[in-house]
Design a protein that fits this description.
It is a single chain. This protein has one domain: 5'-nuclease (Rossmann fold, 3-Layer(aba) Sandwich), CATH 3.40.50.1010. It is 54% helix and 10% strand. It is built from 10 helices and 5 strands, in the order βααβααβααβαβααα. The chain has a 5-stranded parallel beta sheet. The longest helix is centred in the middle third of the chain and has 13 residues, at 82-94.
Length: 167
């Protein structure tokens, strides 16, 4: 897979990455441009029940935060949540090849839209492969401590890819 320089990212991966490593700087080191649709900015700013991630998101002024709502294709808006639909729409509108979505249905729609897909775990694995000092095992534990659900299949894959799988 060619090295991607631009990516459009959804809410769940942003929160997962903040949980895993404490901030979003890893994205800055991996990508030239990280685009965040207006709809995702709204979801992050709403902050859920505990406001987790609002401060690191606001401090990441290098993110390309879209300042206005998108005109989202009805198929996307009727099939996906606002964040996923906006990520795919922005990527298509701006001719950005890669999106970061963790949810299965969103990933499927992105692939059907001829987009390359990664997720929060893919970003962490890429960072590790490129020499960043990341423990995938510790990142997964921190994500789980924040209530982020990760399937056993994804955990096993990530630990195997990172060379951290213990028998």
């Amino acid at each position: 897979m060619p090295k991607t320089e631009e990516i459009v990212i959804n809410t769940s991966p942003l929160i997962a990455i903040m949980a895993a490593v404490g901030d979003l700087e890893i994205l800055r080191t991996l990508y030239k441009n990280v685009f965040v649709p207006f709809e995702v900015c709204e979801e992050i700013s709403a902050g859920g029940t505990e406001g987790f991630g609002i401060e690191p998101f606001e401090q990441a002024i290098w993110l390309k935060k879209w300042s206005h709502p998108l005109q989202i294709n009805p198929l996307l808006s009727n099939s996906l949540d606002r964040g996923e639909a906006s990520v795919i729409q922005l990527a298509l509108d701006q001719n950005i090849d890669t999106v970061c979505i963790d949810e299965t249905v969103g990933r499927r729609f992105a692939r059907l839209s001829n987009l390359s897909v990664t997720g929060s775990m893919g970003i962490l694995l890429r960072a590790k492969r490129e020499g960043r000092p990341i423990s995938i095992r510790a990142a997964i534990q921190k994500m789980k401590e924040q209530g982020i659900w990760i399937s056993d299949r994804v955990v096993a894959f990530a630990l195997r890819e990172a060379g951290e799988l213990t028998e």
